[in-house]
Specification:
single chain; 432 residues; alpha/beta; Rossmann fold; 2 domains; nine-stranded mixed sheet; three-stranded antiparallel sheet; 12 helices; globular
């Protein structure tokens, strides 16, 4: 206590009774590519290149990638290309000596995913690579150590084991979701004939399908999207006829950018749907409303051509109706956000005296945070009392709980759900 020796007014700084809880970030994905240590990418030729390369209009150059399973935080496209390579190489680089150089599909998918992420509103992401998809768990182990990651994607990986690994990673950590690419095409001719029923079932169901397993920690998107590819354009520039430079790529990178864009513009509670896919020029498969009627209840989110643009027209977790309260990806992501924000914002409670004063501080901190969420439109109710409650008292903390060194707080929130089905009932009346 300070001592006061003369009359006057004294102002002291005292710590607040309740500490504010800040919302955690929700817009940082982790991307995983399956790429060998060295790949080849096409590059324009110069006068000193081999005559055969000059004649065909391009050469292949080597790109050496960072060590496998090492995560790199990327905030700009140029930063990405320095580490993982561009679509097209440097014309001043020497031509590769590889016997059969070709564009690596994993490097192309990863590059388009990161580019699509930034193009659709993303601002920062983690990127890593592994040599084979069997090494996917190594990359996920590296991502598990990064708290900032709130979503994970492995662009183009559509195997059953890939889906299982990504979904299990998110379900274990409880602070992120997986953005999954559905298969590009089926093993037969169903998709080509307009039959998309293989997407209704998982491989273990009867009849066997190609949909990812049910998980309320993941969302799956279909179909693959068409984008402009500088590498394809360069390789086919002298072909007859010249290449259009358009290819189909997995949508997960673009979708992650849409997640980030919606989070920034509206909030993580807003469903990342009814949003345009920027940078996409067409869809590999055109699905009708009847097709979506069968796939939406199963949790396959469809990208459709509507109103002159390509729109994300689904917002469900994989499994859809089977996931109960978490059938919407926005509900899962918002609950992840609440859990992690409260967890990190109440660390000051640990080792404090477990008494009624502490209980009131907990109630005040959590209630203030949830009140802000209600004002932002994330919680349902005309009043805060209808939107949430926070209980921390002698009922939640009886003597045996306190003796165990625990303090228990019960929190209830009414999370807003998407208006997925908008229904207008119109009737004819007699004028007068």
């Amino acid at each position: 206590m300070p001592s006061y020796l003369s009359p006057g007014v004294y102002v002291e700084e005292v710590p607040p009774l309740a500490r504010p809880i800040a919302g955690v970030g929700t817009s940082t994905p982790g991307f995983i590519g399956v790429i060998p240590d060295t790949v080849q990418i096409p590059a324009p030729t110069i006068s000193t290149d081999a005559a055969t390369d000059i004649a065909r209009g391009f050469k292949y150059v080597d790109v050496t990638l960072p060590a496998a399973a090492s995560a790199h935080f990327i905030t700009t496209w140029s930063q990405y290309t320095k580490l993982f390579g561009d679509f097209v190489g440097d014309s001043s680089a020497k031509a590769t000596t590889a016997a059969s150089p070709a564009v690596n599909a994993g490097q192309s998918n990863l590059a388009h995913a990161v580019y699509g992420f930034f193009d659709n509103g993303g601002t920062g992401c983690y990127v890593t690579r592994v040599a084979t998809d069997a090494d996917l768990p190594k990359a996920l182990t590296a991502f598990a150590q990064i708290d900032d990651i709130s979503m994970v994607a492995a662009p183009g990986l559509t195997g059953a084991s890939d889906y299982t690994a990504l979904e299990a990673h998110c379900a274990k950590l409880l602070d992120r979701v997986a953005i999954l690419d559905c298969v590009q095409t089926d093993s037969g001719t169903a998709f080509a004939s307009g039959d998309f029923t293989p997407l209704e079932n998982t491989p273990s169901e009867t009849p066997a399908g190609v949909r990812p397993p049910n998980s309320d920690f993941s969302a799956a998107y279909f179909p693959w999207i068409q984008v402009a590819d500088p590498a394809t354009a360069l390789i086919g520039a002298k072909a007859t006829p010249p290449s259009s430079g358009l290819i189909y790529v997995p949508p997960s990178g673009h979708i992650a950018g849409i997640y980030a864009r919606v989070d920034a513009n509206r909030g993580v509670f807003k469903a990342p749907a009814n949003e345009p896919v920027l940078g996409a020029t067409a869809l590999q498969w055109m699905l009708s409303k009847a097709d979506q009627d069968n796939l939406n209840p199963k949790g396959v989110n469809i990208i459709r051509a509507l109103g002159g643009s390509l729109q994300v027209w689904g917002a469900r977790t994989v499994g859809g109706d089977a996931n109960g309260d978490y059938k919407y990806i926005s509900t899962r992501r918002y609950f992840n956000y609440l859990r992690k924000s409260i967890e990190q914002g109440t660390q000051f409670v640990v080792f404090e005296p477990n008494n009624t004063s502490l209980w009131q501080r907990i109630i005040r901190s959590v209630s203030d945070f949830l009140l802000n969420e209600w004002h932002a439109g994330a919680l349902f109710g005309d009043t805060p009392k209808q939107a949430f409650f926070v209980r921390c008292d002698e009922n939640t903390n009886p003597p045996e709980v306190r003796e165990a060194g625990e303090v228990v707080t019960e929190i209830g929130v009414a999370i807003v759900k998407p208006a997925e089905f908008v229904i207008f009932r119109i009737q004819q009346t007699t004028g007068g």
